[in-house]
Amino acid sequence: MKKTLLIVVIILVVIIALPVINLIRWTFQSKKPMDIILIDKTVPTLEREKHKSFNWILTNERFVKKENKSSYSYKKDYYGFSPQRPLREKQWERNDYRLTDLINLAEKNDAVYFADTYGVFFNDWYKGINKSRKSRKLYGGLNNNDFLLLKEMKDRNKLIIMEYNSFDYPTAQFESVRTQEKLGITFSGWTGKYFSSLDTTGEEFPIWMTTMYRKEYKKPWTFTKPGIVFIKDKDIIVLEEGTHLKNAMPQIITDSAYCEKYGVPGSVAFNKWFDVIDPLQNNIVSKFKIETTPIGDTMLIENNLLNEFPAVVQEPVSQRIYYFSGDFANYNVPFWTSRFIGVDKLKGILYSDKPDDTRRFFWLYYKPLINGIFSDYYNSMKKK
Length: 384
Known about the structure:
alpha/beta, ten-stranded mixed sheet, four-stranded antiparallel sheet, 18 strands, 32% helix
């Protein structure tokens, strides 16, 4: 009995001690001073899911502000839409940089991350019964100041990362085209997303897709299995598992050289929105792969699409400009875990070995990719 009790006590001590030890290790880890501009215009909740995971990585890896060596706050340290408490009163503020700020921002800061420029719309902010695709914009879209900030940062050879949906609605065509030119890529106009079920009775299913489908094909929506939907203006393509897809879950595939460089897996599942771009002369770090059947291939080819397209591209000369063709930063990670070293090793709790476990994307792909990009840039800054 005493031996059993002793074992239990030892186990409890270890359980309590390990987090404390990892917290202490994180506290004394070397800080990496780096001034970073974060832009997120899509913040309809206080959780700030569209950039929270990015701030988690900065905190966990000890990237801090140069001035006071403090960690970045996901609640305060960003430009964009800022909801105010209490949320039920629907009060919000816009935290923007002005045209006169751009030169100073580009000079002072080392990197800029455009996490999400889509914005917040009436239907997002005032939840109701309106399920239309587009509603009145409250705030959002890539604008002239964003483009000029991008230009000034590029002219100074600073680190630039931009994510999915910077070129599509509600960004004006003029801003979209010249931003694509500045990044050296071309947006096809197509965006897409995986759905675990195409059944319209699902809570999260965007019902406006069925209206688009009926208008284009003059027949009812009959899909119920997992699938992928592609959207472009008024066009829609629906690929259903079994008929058009062997496996509906898109995969992000990375070549071995980049796997070694960034510490990411060769393949990882991805279930959020993505867009289809032409990388032109950019390096392709990773690509999306969709497992289509011959019928699915035919549908894609008829719309000038392939079942493989870029997921992450890198400007080939300076190698300091990246475009992520997916909603990568959109992950509601528990932020309190950011102050523990080794928390990402808790396989079985945070994620599993199952290939289609989409939680693996943040822990095994996005986290090491962001840390690798920023660490490389930070080390290059130290050599100056």
